[in-house]
């Protein structure tokens, strides 16, 4: 149970960091950990700045009597811009006679749907889970037509996986911008002034192991920033590993 708690905690943290801050998650409404879970990453292109990735996450909670429970699920788009998306999510109840679950969720850009088999023993208790089959369909927001279908079969169990960091989009750092004082001194306004935005610092992404901030020399001089030692800049790996070597 310790392994599933650690796995689910990491998955939930990754989803929170990759989503809109105002998102309310299905797992925020529960105090307990799932009995089984799996996170799947769909990395749609190596050009992370151009094409979005998707994270799909499932949790299953089985009641103490092992007769019923809940399957909860979500899909989250990870975008290349500063704008972060809200997840689509849902839950399906496992009744005491359920042997198959049908589920679906989505928004105007994607649809997630599939099924999960439930195995039962002679006493009717849940003895295991069958194959999890689902399809993530990407939808063109303008035409509303499907553009891509990603069909997958999985066994619902915690698995060690490595994904692009959803916080920094695989870069391991953030670049901050500032307008030099010289631009103001020249009397620039409007778009001309805005276009003078220049990188002033780099901050390591904390989610994938980064830390500290490195400031550009021009910014240090302009802001009279203290020359006292700053926390060293450490770039993150840009990747997230979920689950340890003992996870199966």
Short description:
The chain has 248 residues and is mainly beta.
Set out the fold topology.
Elements: H1 2-18, E1 36-42, E2 53-62, E3 69-78, E4 88-94, E5 100-106, E6 110-120, E7 126-139, E8 146-155, E9 161-164, E10 173-178, H2 181-185, H3 190-194, E11 198-204, E12 213-215, H4 217-223, E13 239-242
Antiparallel strand pairs: 1-2, 2-3, 3-4, 5-6, 6-7, 7-8, 9-13, 10-11, 11-12
Q: What do you see in this structure?
A:
The protein is mostly beta strands and 248 residues long. It contains 4 helices and 13 strands. The strands form 4 sheets. The chain has a 4-stranded antiparallel β-sheet with strand order 1-2-3-4, with helices on one face. Strands 5-6-7-8 form a 4-stranded antiparallel β-sheet, with no helix packed on it. A 3-stranded antiparallel β-sheet has the order 10-11-12. The model has no long low-confidence stretch (mean pLDDT 87).
What keyword list fits this structure?
14% helix, 248 residues, mainly beta, 4-stranded antiparallel sheet
Radius of gyration from the CA trace? 23 Å
Please state the overall shape, judged from the principal axes of the Cα atoms.
elongated
Residue-averaged pLDDT, rounded? 87
Q: Low-confidence parts, pLDDT < 50 over ≥5 residues?
A: none
Task: Please bin the fraction of helical residues.
Answer: 10-25%
Proportion of beta-strand residues: 35-45%
Please tally the helical runs, counting DSSP H or I stretches of 4 or more residues: 4
DSSP strand tally = 13
Profile the largest sheet: 4 strands, antiparallel
- Major beta sheet, strand line-up: 1-2-3-4
CA-to-CA gap between the ends? 13 Å
Tell me the structural class: mainly beta
Q: Which assembly state applies to the chains in this document?
A: single chain
Order of helices and strands: HEEEEEEEEEEHHEEHE
